[in-house]
Design goal:
The structure holds 2 protein chains of 2 kinds. By secondary structure, chain A is of the alpha/beta class. Helices cover 35% and strands 17% of the residues of chain A. Chain B is of the alpha/beta class. Classes of the chains: A alpha/beta, B alpha/beta. Bound molecules: flavin-adenine dinucleotide (2 copies), iron/sulfur cluster (SF4) (2 copies) and FE2/S2 (inorganic) cluster.
Chain lengths: 472, 285
């Protein structure tokens, strides 16, 4: 705080906006929305940081990035030093800079936010990573001497990729098993191209391969091989299989053609590139009137994808009000700008369809009002009797959360699961109840965030390294 | 790449058999399980049942009917070429059990899916009746293999060019009337065929297994695309199935959902036929 007082009076720099594609153009294409900072804009934004001695922002970052440190490098134009600083704590800065919910993490605590707008920490992190990718040398961090120990990582999402990166640096042999035909987890199949270009995900995975990791795709552990079989070939196994189970509304009519789970809708569009159909072979129903149910990041991604696939109307149907939307503020804002229509305090009761063709024609919804606060402190939505009405739609996307996929856990004796089917693991070490097996990310916590999955990966890799060095 | 080491055209080129090098899958696969294949970077993920395996040589066998763009593209793949992705084994294996007498009914390419199950049922000591059918003699596949796997085999063709003239359901009914000791029926083929077979077996109170083929994407229970209604409950065919108790399946719902992409499939296939002709242009590789 003292610096603030002592600093010579100078013109206050406003938070630098990231240039982005105009809303009316981008709503019809899949290119990334913000273009990123130029070096000039980044340096100007970096100048806003007052370099707190006891930085609050850092407490808001789950992996404790040295935020004033890397920002100072940017301010001074030392971009390579900035990325090296970031890499010490975060192996996926290009991803986190784009998708972290900064407003409730690092930026939410930035001291400038008290009176003014916080430093754009996420944008700066993204800039440093992008600059390195586009201009930097293909530098590889130094690796410890080979230890001869072998680790299997199951699932190539943020949790698994973090574990792999850390253990490679410590000299261990790492083999990643991924069920889909490409690595990245949700970063590849879930988060759309316009928010996280897939080239970045490929680059990060490619970096791990250059570091010496083996990435085996098309390997569905639990089917192609069991965890017990992996334990015969590897010294340790990390499970980072995510929360890949679709949740349906369980209301009548969910079988109609045009009703998708968010997982299916996004997988078709992102992983299978159905938005380029018929150049790519996988089709998707390109609805004219699309309703997405839910209010999180996943729902925003679906509603914005629907616009890009050509919808005239893309609705978000959510049973609470705007204030309770769990999605990142930036995404809600982008969705509004692009013309997503929010039907708030509405709850679906049944889907309507044409029984001859099997196609969806509408959804019946019930209006809600806010009642008393519930256990989470949010005001509970209560239905208004007799307020049902019909919204005409031809496509519905259900984005109300996801559950634990039992494919791997059911085939692995000795793992303890909680009542929702997530793996029980020590929050400090990631150790499961099964010897030599660690777990982390969404399969332990339920769907959370990229950076929390990476944080869990970091803890687990430290614990695995300790085990490989000193024993269980 | 997963290389094709042997390729055969059957049923006048409408059905293709591939033996593919996939040692890990071959070592694990059990009757009733399937794989998902992709021909190239732009390709769709297509589920196909393993018709056979040769673990010693590390090979799996798929037999598919050419019905649309992706299977037509598969057909262009020759020995020495291959698939960029083969994922498996997926799905639950058939629960093979010695029950005494069984009847196995297969139609069209369903016979390819039925064969390993029939063979398994016979190997563990069941008496096996089988009924196989096709539209016409030229389109009937795997006659010899099915014969070897059965104690008594009947053949049906819609046009009467071979065996009994009529549907497999006729012979199914006849056999169930004749032999009251049959404890289990396994019926695999097009949806209408399975649906009518189940009607027949239900009359006789014979437990019936069917293998469902809803549209799939990942095959690991992640997307929910393959949901089917069985006993009024939502099930995912890729992880809970693909085999289910046939009397409990909501056939009409399955039939409708299989038509989800009829318009798009036609666009895709027409475009393929136009630019491919012989099937060797670069737009698909
Ligand atoms: C559409 C969408 C948008 C999101 N937006 C944001 C956002 O803006 N910001 C944010 O912070 N978070 C966001 N999230 C959440 C975030 O992506 C997840 O919390 C994070 O990816 C979890 O990482 P993970 O490594 O635990 O699992 P995942 O990313 O789910 O990766 C798990 C991997 O394991 C593989 N796998 C599963 N089973 C097996 C098996 N049996 N064998 C082998 N491999 C297997 C899967 O195919 C997958 O690749 C979003 C999620 C979704 C779905
Ligand atoms: C578990 C399982 C096992 C199967 N085993 C066999 C087999 O052994 N031999 C065989 O010939 N066929 C099998 N099928 C069906 C086969 O997958 C489809 O014929 C194939 O996907 C058609 O693709 P296409 O692009 O050539 O045709 P399209 O023109 O795309 O479609 C023709 C029809 O095939 C179905 N279909 C389309 N896409 C898919 C998809 N991704 N998944 C499933 N069905 C789809 C639809 O009903 C569609 O109307 C199986 C299906 C499943 C689910
Ligand atoms: S990783 Fe996320 S929370 Fe941490 S500094 Fe970067 S954007 Fe903020
Ligand atoms: S980002 Fe904000 S809280 Fe962090 S050091 Fe800079 S001014 Fe202080
Ligand atoms: S194919 Fe995706 S859940 Fe079965």
């Amino acid at each position: 705080m003292s610096e603030e007082v002592k600093a010579p009076k100078k013109e206050k720099i406003p938070r630098q906006k990231m240039p982005e594609q105009p809303a009316n153009e981008r709503r019809r294409n899949f290119e990334e929305v913000p273009y990123g900072y130029t070096p000039e804009l980044a340096m100007k934004e970096a100048e806003r940081c007052i370099q707190c001695k006891d930085p609050r922002c850092k407490q808001g970052c789950p992996v404790e990035i040295d935020i004033p440190g890397f920002i100072k490098h940017i301010k001074e134009g030392e971009f390579e030093a900035a990325i090296r600083n970031l890499w010490e704590k975060n192996s996926l800065p290009a991803v986190c800079g784009r998708v972290c919910p900064q407003e409730v993490q690092c930026e939410g605590l930035c001291i400038l936010g008290k009176k003014d707008e916080p430093v754009a920490i996420g944008n700066l992190e993204r800039f440093a990573a992008d600059y390195q990718r586009e201009h930097g040398k293909q530098i590889l961090p130094p690796k410890a001497d080979p230890t001869g120990k072998k680790v299997a990582v199951v699932g190539a999402g943020p949790a698994g990729l973090t574990v792999a990166g850390d253990l490679l640096l410590k000299g261990h042999d790492v083999h990643i098993f991924e069920a889909l035909h490409g690595p990245g987890g949700v970063l590849l199949y879930g988060i759309p191209e316009f928010r996280l270009p897939k080239a970045i995900v490929f680059q990060e995975c490619n970096f791990l391969e250059r570091m010496g990791a083996t990435i085996e795709v098309n390997a569905v552990i639990g089917r192609s091989e069991t965890v017990d079989e992996l334990l015969e070939r590897f010294d340790a196994v990390f499970l980072g299989v995510g929360a890949g189970l679709p949740v349906f509304l369980k209301i009548p009519g969910e079988h109609y053609i045009g009703v998708y789970s968010a997982n299916e809708y996004l997988t078709r569009s992102n992983l299978m590139k159905a938005y380029e159909f018929p150049v790519y072979d996988t089709p998707i129903v390109k609805g004219k009137s699309v309703a997405t149910f839910g209010g999180g990041n996943v729902a925003m991604d679906c509603a914005r994808t629907a616009l890009r696939l050509g919808a005239d109307h893309s609705y978000i149907i959510y049973r609470r009000s705007m204030a309770e939307l769990p999605a990142r503020t930036a995404e809600v804002h982008h969705a509004e700008e692009e013309g997503v229509e929010f039907l708030l305090l509405n709850n679906p009761t049944r889907f309507l369809g044409d029984d001859a063709t099997g196609r969806l024609t509408g959804v019946e919804v019930l209006k809600m009002e806010l009642g008393e606060p519930d256990a989470s402190g949010r005001r509970r939505p209560v239905p208004i009797k007799g307020s049902e009405y019909t919204v005409e739609i031809d496509t519905a996307v259900i984005a109300i959360g996801s559950g634990s996929n039992p494919l791997l856990t059911k085939s692995t004796p000795g793992l303890a699961l909680n009542k929702w089917g997530y793996i029980v693991a020590d929050p400090k070490t990631g150790k499961t109840m099964k010897p030599r097996v660690w777990a982390g990310g969404d399969i332990v916590t339920g769907s959370a965030t990229v950076i929390l999955a990476m944080g869990a990966g970091r803890l687990a890799s430290n614990s695995i390294h300790d085990y490989l060095t000193y024993g269980w | 790449m997963f290389e094709i080491v042997e390729r055969q055209e059957m049923a006048q080129g409408t059905i293709i058999s591939n033996w593919i090098k996939a040692p890990k899958i071959a070592a694990k696969a059990k009757p009733g399980q399937f794989v998902i294949l992709r021909a190239n970077e732009k390709g769709e993920r297509i589920p196909l049942t393993m018709a056979d395996t040769d673990p010693a040589k590390g090979l799996i066998n798929i037999i598919y009917m050419v019905v649309g763009k992706s299977t037509a593209l598969f057909k262009t793949l020759q020995v020495g070429q291959g698939y960029i992705d083969v994922i498996g084994p997926l799905g639950q294996p058939t629960h093979l059990e010695k029950v005494g007498k069984v009847i196995c009914v297969g139609g069209g390419t369903g016979i390819a899916v039925l064969h390993p199950i029939t063979r398994g049922l016979k190997q563990i000591g069941n008496f096996v009746y089988s009924v196989i059918g096709a539209r016409s003699k030229d389109l009937l596949i795997l006659e010899d293999k099915m014969k070897a796997a059965s104690d008594e085999m009947m053949i049906c063709t819609d046009d009467g060019t071979y065996g009994h003239k009529g549907f497999v359901t006729d012979k199914l009914k006849e056999t169930l009337e004749k032999d009251k000791d049959i404890k289990l029926a396994v019926c695999i083929g097009p949806v209408p065929m399975m649906k009518f077979c189940c009607k027949v077996t239900k009359e006789f109170g014979v437990k019936t297994l069917v293998s469902l083929n809803p549209i799939m994407v990942d095959g690991t229970g992640m997307c929910g695309c393959c949901r089917v209604k069985v006993e009024g409950k939502m099930q995912f065919a890729c992880v809970d199935g693909p085999e289910f108790e046939g009397h409990e399946v909501d056939w009409d719902e399955l039939d409708l959902r299989l038509r989800s992409y009829m318009v798009e499939e036609k666009v895709s296939y027409d475009q393929f036929k136009e630019c491919h002709g012989g099937g060797k242009c670069s737009c698909c590789s």
